[in-house]
């Protein structure tokens, strides 16, 4: 049986969940400097997240998007208001507005810890996977899900590109790296490179078979996409749907 | 900031979630001997759990209940059928049928790892908390929830007893022990002894104030209790509600 890499003593890690969109958010921190980052926060839970960060005595440096989500509005806009001094982050290729843009090969630092940016397009052009090599963990967004993967039938979806992203930039990580996706709908919280290389029902196929599977999923049009994309193009800072404008008016005031 | 104790290199840990009842289940294993235990499985997800255990190459020794749940049917009955050789476990004080009964001070072993049983009644008489001292983790069932606690207004609920259980047997653990409850409804996955000692809105009060709070919650009658208790009295092995009998007939045949 494969052994996980142990987290460093000064590395704090906390996974969080949104029951509505089944999104996972990840709070990472340096326990010595208290500098923290939050991956894929959800707007409806930004207050929960800010409270936890406060309770733990952490200082949020970056709130980070793995990509421009289509199923929920990111919490990165509200969080930079709730926790002044923090910055929103997204990839340059996403073409979304943010305080900081990242591209393949960039390194994000928080305290003494580092996170590498890997461009893993296919679900969207701007999808990235974030890798903390020393901790043996990676955040795969919607590129690779547990025993699944992100859709390739909207935004800039492309199954061939997604297949290559997973095989070249995620499956090439060590087998015992733990992978944390942006979503899971079955109550499973994490997986490993080895598990997905052995058991992923789609990505263990040949590229041709994979493309065939992805092109024949016949999924419904994403319910939240028309509300989520305009807001996520600005990292949830404005362009909220009308029913949310009022709620966040005081927080997001210019 | 408090530092978590690091998990031993040969200790495997995986948290799982049931979106319907918001129940957390916990898979623990010795990575060398492959012996595993599963805390608080849910019947509807027993097949998911058995598949994960199989994928990981683990051998389930015990499927364990923290108490006789009132909100869902335990998966321990189905799991002992799906994974022959495994045994169901619950406390003697719960008065439920199981392969193995535990009481305060007992030690459950899996591979080279140990888990201590602490009697923590108050939500029910049979509630226990399981503690893995070497790993700095404890499974608190419904006794202590994240910034909350289990109800004390049905079954054998008693707020004074619950208050003493938490203060004497959970808050007495080291501050940096991570606590994993049976449920959370806000997408938070774990907490620590220190966090709950500082921020639990109920259990930071005096015992008198706590009793007053608990006696005035005016909660609705639990929706699933009349279906869950008869089945959970036999660890989910039979006495299933009629609509589930058919589904599990072939698995649970005598």
TrEMBL record, chains A, B:
It comes from the Eukaryota. Gene3D superfamilies: Ribonuclease Z/Hydroxyacylglutathione hydrolase-like (3.60.15.10). Keywords: Metal-binding. InterPro entries: Metallo-B-lactamas, Mito_Persulfide_Diox, POD-like_MBL-fold, RibonucZ/Hydroxyglut_hydro. Residues 22-183 form the Metallo-beta-lactamase domain. PANTHER family: PERSULFIDE DIOXYGENASE ETHE1, PERSULFIDE DIOXYGENASE ETHE1, MITOCHONDRIAL. This is Metallo-beta-lactamase domain-containing protein.
